[in-house]
Amino acid sequence: MNLTWMAWTLPTAIFFITILVLLCGMAIWEYASPGGNPRVGVLRFETTRGDRLFLSLLGSAFIHLAWLGLVGPNLWWALALSVVYAIGVFRYV
Amino acid sequence: MERTWNNKAWFMVLPVLLLVAFSAIIPLMTVVNYSVQDTFGNNVFFWAGSEWFEEILHSDRFWEAMARNLAFSAIILIIEIPLGIFIALNMPKKGWGVPVCLVLMALPLLIPWNVVGTIWQVFGRVDIGLLGYTLRALGFNYNYVNDPFDAWITVIVMDVWHWTSLVVLLCYAGLVSIPDAYYQAAKIDGASRWAIFRYIQLPKMNRVLLIAVLLRFMDSFMIYTEPFVVTGGGPGNTTTFLSIDLVKLAIGEFNLGEAAAMSIVYFLIIMLLSWVFYTVMTAYDAEQ
């Protein structure tokens, strides 16, 4: 199958594989512990672990954009900040 | 009672997943790939990294289009939601008036977007259009072609004309689902018209209003065809919303990398705002 029209690059492939691995991980987690572990966290409304993953990914995207806009093109610190943010979301939201 | 979890049911969504993959996920992946590269055509790409994103985030043109789009969405939501509720509350609940009103309300929704644009483009013309000609005859200096304020008014009124019906139909569906017993109880308690609206009708319309706000926000934030046909984004750039700017960038200037980066930022903002709307309204619903 010729996928050159999709203009794949190694970094974007790694990015999408990471997302896929995260989704597979969530599916396995759901299989092992069904129900999505709903709870009320700091946002004062019920979230499941799927919601927490969504918030982590969306928040990380904005952290990267804010870093690019306000600091500069070196995104490794933005990535580190996103990981800390995601851990925070899964722990407290 | 213990709930039974049967995860095999998830296989039932596989066909939808495949459909969404082809119509949304694969194109989105391609856009992400484009956003980190530059091309001059012929399927040859050069790595650009985060360059396009930086350019977009520092571009006045992008933020101005964003501000115009947010203002447009806010204005049409402020007008269409209360107006839709008001019309739905005053629509007949039984008799021959019901089908007549429903058909009248559904008519603007049946007209294709480019046709709506063309109708309003002609309607607003000062030489042959009923609206433009009448306003001129009444002494108003109306001209949507070269006056930014008139262009905005025209685009907003056009959107209100086209989409308020959707809010009306959704609210009406919510209203007719309220059992008569609620109204009888309110009558016995001597509730005022406002109290009936505030404590019976509005809570019962909550879910449909959530859908109406979400649909209208997303649609208005992505609006392209109607303003493009009526004003072409002008005069100047005064009605150039994000989608019009995006098409100018991608097709007009063939700047695919920058347009892809802009699409992703645009997509993320729509996702964030939709999530905020949805969460706020469902949390309010749960509280009720």
List the helices and strands and how they pair.
The complex is a heterodimer of chains A (93) and B (288).
Chain A: H1 10-32, E1 39-40, E2 46-47, H2 49-70, H3 76-92
Antiparallel strand pairs in A: 1-2
Helix pairs in contact in A: 2-3
Chain B: H1 14-35, E1 37-39, E2 45-47, H2 51-57, H3 60-90, H4 97-110, H5 113-123, H6 130-137, H7 148-176, H8 180-188, H9 193-221, H10 225-230, H11 242-252, H12 256-287
Antiparallel strand pairs in B: 1-2
Helix pairs in contact in B: 1-12, 2-12, 3-7, 3-9, 4-7, 7-9, 9-12, 11-12
Number of helices of chain A: 3
The N- to C-terminal Cα distance of chain B equals 25 Å
Radius of gyration of chain A using CA atoms only: 16 Å
The tally of beta strands of chain B, per DSSP, is 2
Mean pLDDT across the residues of chain A is: 92
Strand order of the largest sheet of chain B: 1-2
Q: Give me the side-by-side strand order of the main sheet of chain A.
A: 1-2
Count of distinct structural domains of chain B: 1
CATH topology of chain B: MetI-like fold
InterPro entries (chain B): MetI-like (IPR000515), MetI-like_sf (IPR035906), Sugar_ABC_transporter (IPR052730)
Subcellular location (chain B): Cell membrane
Pfam families (chain B): BPD_transp_1
Protein name (chain B): ABC transporter permease
Describe this structure in words.
The complex is a heterodimer of chains A (93) and B (288). Chain A has helices at 10-32, 49-70, 76-92; strands at 39-40, 46-47. Chain A is mainly alpha-helical. Chain A folds into 2 domains: 1-34; 38-93. In chain A, strand 1 (39-40) and strand 2 form a beta hairpin. In chain A, helix 2 runs antiparallel to helix 3 (76-92). Chain A is flat. In chain A, 12% of the residues are buried. Chain B has one domain: MetI-like fold (Orthogonal Bundle), CATH 1.10.3720.10. A two-stranded antiparallel ribbon of chain B has the order 1-2. In chain B, helix 3 (60-90) runs antiparallel to helix 9 and helix 7 (148-176) packs across helix 9 (193-221).
